[in-house]
Amino acid sequence: MLVLRMLDRIRRIFKLELPVRSVFDEPTIAGLAVELQKAQALGLKARVPILQRRASPTITSASRDTLLSQLRKLSAEEAQALIRRALNSKQSA
């Protein structure tokens, strides 16, 4: 798992794809640096787009209180429908 995490970091920082095997073939930092230089020279870009983490939305106490007051006004059926929609949209994402 550590190898995969390390390769993911290399991929994100250098935007290069290194095979897992390269870590075992070149187990030192100096060896991996040479592999990175070779990959850059060959133009081995990351194969899939690198996803950027989204900042989590900040919820202020005022917006939370407003949301809670709106939720309290819902009937039981409306609340259940809202929960079903939220769960369905989460599953399809």
Short description:
The chain has a domain at 2-42. It is built from five helices and no strands.
Note down, in words, how this protein is organized.
By secondary structure, this protein is mainly α. The protein has a domain at 2-42. It is built from five helices and no strands. It has helices spanning 2-14, 20-25, 29-42, 61-72, 76-92. The longest helix has 17 residues, at 76-92. It is elongated, with a radius of gyration of 23 Å. 4% of the residues are buried.
Protein topology:
Blueprint: H1 2-14, H2 20-25, H3 29-42, H4 61-72, H5 76-92
SSE string, helices as H and strands as E: HHHHH
Tell me, what's the shape? elongated
Sketch the major β-sheet. Answer: none
What structural class is derived from the secondary structure elements? Answer: mainly alpha
- Residues in helix, %: 55-70%
List keywords for this structure.
single chain, mainly alpha, 5 helices
